Amino acid sequence: MKIAIVTGASSGIGQSAAVEIARRGTGVILTYGKNAQGGLDTAATIEKDGGQAVALPLDLGDSGSFPAFRDTVAGVLRDWQRDTFDCLVNNAGSSEMSLIEDTTEETFDRLTRVLLKGPFFLTRTLLPLMADGGAIVNTSSSATATAGLVPGYSVYAAMKGGLDVLTRYMAKEFSTRGIRVNSVSPGPTRTRLGGDAFSRHPELIAPLAERTALGRVGEPDDVGAMIAALVSDDSRWVTAQNIEVSGGFNL
User: Which of 18, 151, 213, 219 could form a disulfide with 9 if both were Cys (CB 3.0 to 4.6 A apart)?
Assistant: First the structure.
């Protein structure tokens, strides 16, 4: 049995990716941050469908906790008669909106820790446990686009842009072990990101749908399916790519 680690799987895209990956016969070690119940619910959904899953807490903004997390992962792998895992989905993240002139160093540093430093050092920490020939997917954002920018997302987008570059360097360096690395860039997607913005401001949905070629905002399953495809053998010849999953947002 193949095994995947999916971070930020208590809701939204991460939850959908974890469930879709599990449906393909892969065991899933998923993580949650503040939403412990969501993580447990994701694991329960996978197990109800006949899959195997374990939900673990992880604070992506605290890189000092990563070695202990790696040790916990190693224990789960032993329970599953494995000493390596096959796929890593760096999905966990957070979003905070502020104009450049209003952005504090605290906000900048917090987003850096979660969106760029976190995936970098988590991947580095887990790499010794990863099997050769595996796959990594990083969740980026269409906010890095060169057109249709929304004021207030400068730090978030800058970190995601850094993640896009990091994806290519990971693909280059890890290729010696046959590990593929890609990223996905969702467009506007109905998730809890930004303080559950779509639920709090449903009036945002129609204007975003009008700017989308396929006529609606994205759903987590739209992106989760692509992530599952990228970590599967169906994408065995795809690496160093950033794939926009947006339904043609701003097309």
Answer: 18
Name the active-site residue from 32, 153, 156, 169: 156
Single pTM value for the model: 0.95
3-state SS class at 27: strand
Number of domains the chain is built from: 1
Look at residue 215 and tell me if it is in a domain. yes
Question: Residue 136 belongs to a domain with what CATH number?
Answer: 3.40.50.720
pLDDT tens figures, 103-158: 999 999 999 999 999 999 999 999 999 999 999 999 999 999 998 888 999 999 99
Instruction: Please provide the DSSP assignment of 61-80 as one string.
Output: T-GGGHHHHHHHHHHHHHHT
| 153: annotated active-site residue | no
Helices and strands, counts by H and E, the chain: 9, 7
- Tokens 């119940």 correspond to 37
